[in-house]
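Title: Comparing notes on inverse folding

I've been comparing how different people in this forum approach sequence design from structure. To keep things fair, I'm posting one structure and asking everyone to reply with a full sequence. Here's the target:
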């Protein structure tokens, strides 16, 4: 059972330009990085609206907040009392929007759909993805391990190895391997204590930081030659795209009120019947949802979102929808407190910082353990703007632990109590789009929101047994339809070090052959023993990470090698990003409504987004 503990206080970052870069192994410090950030962006980053410990000297009272909410026709997603507490943690704007340069003010108004004037417009730079403005180029994959470690420990790229990995991958999702496929009880074998929502939250996060479209499984390829088509920063470019100035189709521009109160478009549902969350703990409490989908192009139903992979299955696209609503709820909070500054920019910053906090203190602390996250915070040196290449040890191996957490069935809502994995894909495909109203996901069954539902979906344990549905991925055939085989072959093609090699490079004792084979069916043991035990001597890193999680960490967390790769990669991304919550001047504490003051979880996120109630 994973016990989530509060981490000790983190470092207090200095103001931009005040941190002396340090050189360390594979990274290269860029002393000029902070000075190269455009001055308007530097100023924005150094003046947060939610400084740690800020208390409004002239607090809004409940009656005034109620009046503002009524006058602006807002629909709060939480109680006004909760909203009030957050409202009084927001510092008044240093630069009111009305004092922005005249050409910027005029340009913002010209972006509205009825005008659509983009020639010559002047847009605030901080509306764009921050990595474009505040970090060295990081658009490639690379390695965490040394060349010597890889050369000495990687599997040979030949037909024999490819055949072995094909045999291993093909059996990892065979029917009957999951001992309790229908159970949601962590006391049962194969069932994790982790809420199943973290499987898809982890997928969402992956789509925020990595995207490889050019590598091949058929040739020995250096990772340094592969482009990363996502910014390696937790900047939610998968939600915001390139911002309202370049991707206006993602946005709703206000027709009245503050011109910068720009929201994200939501989509409509196909009206089939009631679905989603219930207001009384019963099927009768659901309603027919009308706008619980992402926006889609008429005719094709292609999702108009920042990353097309977030339309891959029903659960991930419904979480993408929740993120759209999360931004919109923050915009409404700023409107309610009459924030005088750039509301879009401030809302985006608040959203990203709370999301990053949840990634570290909810997701990573559950997956890696608090100690591993704290160790990474203390040991990783990554000056702002330092060079970075997304390590394939992370992207192609360790972070793919989530594939083993996927279940074959889910309680989606009161209508669909045992939806199969095939249906989770099917009901996010034409002709069942836009998302059917009766298939809207009840996220109370996926995260610990405190709202009662009959079933709280639990993830599968992190191990080498995969959901049977992952042997026949929709839209693919042959090897590409078998997820485990595809993962193993990709690691081979990119020359990943073995699990043993990675362990030794970290100073960690590698797992023994007996540990690697512990609890496995005879057929899988036979594959591991074949070819002179090649896969036991040079175990594929992804498979090794799964085995050590199962054998050394009970399947509820990653083991020593996996947790170190994952925790250090996330911490490095955050530390080098000038706009991350770790680099907020004076430190950062969440201010949005949460079940525990000063903290913010994914459950708090979906609650504030308004997707846990009809």
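Reply #1:
Here's my take.
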């Amino acid at each position: 059972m994973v016990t989530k503990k509060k981490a000790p206080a983190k470092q207090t970052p200095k103001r931009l330009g005040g941190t002396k870069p340090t050189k360390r192994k594979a990274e290269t410090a860029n002393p000029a990085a902070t000075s190269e950030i455009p001055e308007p962006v530097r100023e924005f980053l150094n003046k947060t609206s939610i400084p740690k410990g800020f208390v409004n000297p002239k607090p809004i009272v409940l009656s005034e907040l109620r009046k503002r909410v009524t006058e602006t026709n807002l629909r709060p997603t939480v109680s006004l009392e909760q909203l009030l507490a957050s409202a009084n943690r927001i510092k008044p704007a240093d630069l009111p929007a009305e004092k922005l340069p005249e050409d910027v003010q005029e340009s913002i108004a010209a972006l509205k759909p009825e005008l659509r004037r983009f020639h010559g417009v002047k847009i605030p730079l901080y509306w764009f993805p921050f990595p474009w403005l505040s970090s060295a180029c990081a658009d490639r994959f690379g390695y965490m391990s040394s060349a010597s470690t890889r050369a000495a420990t990687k599997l040979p790229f030949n037909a024999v190895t490819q055949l072995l990995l094909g045999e291993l991958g093909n059996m990892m999702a065979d029917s009957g391997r999951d001992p309790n496929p229908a159970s949601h009880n962590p006391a049962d074998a194969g069932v994790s204590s982790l809420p199943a929502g973290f499987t898809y939250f982890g997928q969402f996060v992956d789509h925020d930081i990595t995207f490889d479209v050019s590598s091949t499984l058929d040739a020995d390829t250096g990772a340094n030659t592969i482009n990363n088509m996502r910014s390696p920063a937790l900047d939610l470019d998968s939600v915001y795209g390139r911002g309202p100035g370049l991707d206006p189709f993602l946005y709703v521009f206000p027709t009245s009120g503050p011109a910068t109160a720009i929201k994200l478009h939501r989509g409509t549902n196909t009206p089939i019947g009631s679905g989603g969350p219930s207001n009384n703990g019963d099927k009768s409490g659901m309603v027919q949802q009308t706008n619980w989908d992402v926006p889609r192009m008429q005719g094709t139903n292609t999702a108009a979102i920042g990353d097309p992979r977030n339309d891959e299955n029903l659960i991930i696209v419904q979480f993408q929808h929740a993120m759209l609503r999360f931004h919109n709820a923050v915009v409404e909070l700023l409107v309610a407190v009459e924030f005088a500054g750039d509301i879009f920019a401030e809302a985006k910053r608040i959203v990203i910082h709370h999301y990053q906090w949840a990634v570290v203190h909810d997701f990573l602390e559950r997956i890696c353990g608090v100690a591993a996250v704290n160790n990474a915070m203390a040991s990783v040196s990554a000056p702002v703007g330092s060079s970075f290449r997304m390590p394939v040890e992370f992207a192609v191996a360790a972070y793919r632990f989530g594939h083993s957490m996927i279940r074959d069935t889910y309680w989606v809502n009161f209508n669909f109590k045992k939806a199969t994995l095939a249906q989770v894909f099917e009901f996010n495909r034409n002709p069942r789009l836009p998302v059917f109203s009766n298939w809207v996901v009840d996220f109370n069954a996926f995260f610990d929101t405190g709202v009662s539902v009959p079933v709280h979906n639990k993830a599968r344990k992190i191990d080498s047994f995969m959901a049977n549905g992952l042997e026949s991925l929709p839209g693919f055939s042959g090897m590409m339809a078998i997820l485990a085989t595809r993962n193993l072959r990709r690691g081979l093609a990119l020359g990943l070090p073995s699990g043993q090699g990675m362990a030794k490079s970290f100073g960690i004792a590698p797992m023994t052959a007996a540990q690697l084979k512990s609890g496995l069916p005879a057929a899988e043991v036979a594959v591991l023993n074949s070819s002179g035990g090649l896969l036991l001597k040079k175990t594929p890193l992804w498979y090794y990470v799964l085995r050590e999680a199962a054998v050394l960490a009970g399947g509820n967390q990653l083991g020593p090698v996996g947790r170190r790769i994952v925790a250090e990669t996330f911490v490095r991304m955050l530390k080098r990003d000038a706009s991350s919550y770790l680099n907020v001047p004076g430190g950062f504490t969440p201010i949005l409504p949460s079940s525990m003051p000063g903290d913010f979880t994914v459950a708090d996120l979906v609650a504030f987004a308004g997707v846990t109630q009809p």
